[in-house]
Design brief:
This protein is of the alpha/beta class. Helices cover 27% and strands 26% of the residues. Residues 1-222 form the Orotate phosphoribosyltransferase-like domain.
């Protein structure tokens, strides 16, 4: 657990499997979401599936130990789970975008996935919008490119990394139910820390709306937080070292399908016209998209394997852009670790057993009004870093990020751009 620099909530559970704040084997993070899919599958089926029941303890063991996670993940994906009814998965930005995607993709057919976003899309009204009250960035927007990805009577599966009070899930259920009522909701998370009072609020909403809300988690318990942390110094620091590290820019826009009709406006009012990638889930994906995105991921991984220059490689996703970089990282070979930049300001300390030891801050490449952070980077830990950006950004907007990675942290910095500046395949 770490301290947040946030007056609304003073603590943060720092996951060892999520791939957000701490570096992990990318297969371990993919497996954590896929494990939730098994729990959901078991919840939805009255009769036990022997293959699922046999695999589940093996997956939990792999997640706990960190060993054989790649074999466990590949075994699970071969099961090709089929839900008894259509499912709509919604992952919460930014931390659970990859978690929700990996949970969704374990289902072979009959499911769709969309994740909420902090981006504001020009000329489009969100399909749903809600607030995350404790967050430093409270507004969530959901832009599903097809109504069926949310509308209808089929169950919705909400995915978050951890549930403390459950208010975020209740807020989105209210927002969905107001426009697209249905009877069944699932709330999936790695951790469920709801108190008895918070559990009762779920029951009260069930009775009020005439619905069922089924929580699913890998770990369940209760916590009690007392006092306030003494945050006497900044949560993150820019690199103060001056050593110059070579920067290699890798363009991969020709490998991915794009959404050229989606543009965003940042917090300063600047419009960004560079296209988003179709397969991220920001605008919704289904089983047909999975095949195309998997092909692009395999091509990208083959290209980047030829660019590796060391035996210990860090791959960094950026903000919401987590799942595709995570999948690419998993195919880069041995000695690869993955995590992501974040908007979350987390307190750093070198006291024993505290998880966030160092921090670097920089301007978000996609929105200069937003500060990003990356944690636990120290000289000598890695030979090189691959930083993944979903789309092109204006010249100069990468300077702050690149500067934060200089100073002897890596012998080589690779900036991987997954979308072209203009042109490409529109779908």
């Amino acid at each position: 657990m770490a301290a947040r620099v946030n007056p609304k909530r003073s603590f943060l559970f720092v996951s060892k499997v999520l791939g957000k704040h701490l570096a992990v084997n990318p297969y371990q993070s993919l497996l954590s979401g896929a494990a939730l899919s098994l729990l959901l599958y078991r919840e939805m089926n009255a009769e036990a599936d022997p293959a699922v029941e046999q695999l589940l303890p093996e997956i939990i063991t792999a997640l706990s130990s960190g060993e054989h996670v790649d074999q466990a993940y590949q075994q699970l994906m071969k099961l090709k789970l089929t839900a008894p009814v259509p499912l709509a998965f919604i992952g919460f930005a930014e931390t659970a975008t990859a978690l929700g995607h990996s949970m969704y993709e374990a289902f072979n057919r009959g499911a769709t996935y969309v994740h909420t976003t902090r981006h504001q899309i020009v000329g489009q009204e969100p399909f749903i919008q809600f607030e995350e009250e404790h967050s430093h960035a409270v507004s969530h927007r959901c832009y599903a490119r097809e109504a069926r990805m949310i509308a209808g009577e089929h169950p919705i599966v909400l995915v978050d990394d951890e549930i403390t009070t459950g208010k975020t899930a209740l807020n989105i259920i209210r927002a969905i139910h107001e426009q697209h009522p249905r009877h069944v909701y699932y709330v999936a998370s790695l951790l469920d820390w709801r108190s008895e009072d918070n559990i009762r609020r779920y029951a009260e909403l069930e009775q009020e709306l005439g619905i069922t809300i089924t929580p699913i988690s890998l770990v369940k318990g209760q916590i009690k937080v007392e006092g306030k942390p003494d945050l006497s110094h900044p949560a993150a620091i820019p690199s103060s070292l001056t050593a110059e590290t070579p920067v290699n820019r890798i363009e991969m826009g020709h490998l991915f399908e794009l959404l050229e009709d989606r543009h965003s406006v940042d917090g300063s009012g600047t419009v960004h016209n560079a296209p988003f990638i179709a397969g991220t889930g920001r605008f919704g994906v289904d089983e047909q998209d999975n095949l195309r995105t998997a092909h692009s991921i395999h091509q990208a991984a083959a290209l980047l394997r030829g660019q590796r220059q060391g035996t210990r490689t860090l791959c960094l996703g950026t903000e919401e852009f987590m799942y595709i970089p995570m999948r690419i990282s998993a195919e880069l070979g041995e000695g690869v670790f993955y995590h992501s930049t974040t908007r979350s300001p987390v307190y750093r300390s070198k006291v024993p057993d505290y998880p966030i030891r160092t921090g670097h801050s920089f301007d978000s490449p996609e929105d200069s009004s937003v500060t990003n952070y990356v944690y636990n980077l120290v000289p000598g830990a890695y030979d090189e870093v691959f930083v993944f950006l979903e789309r092109q950004v204006p010249a100069g907007d990468l300077d702050s990020l690149i500067h934060s990675l200089q100073g002897g942290l890596f012998a080589q910095i690779h900036i991987v751009i997954c979308g072209p500046e203009q042109g490409g395949t529109s779908i």
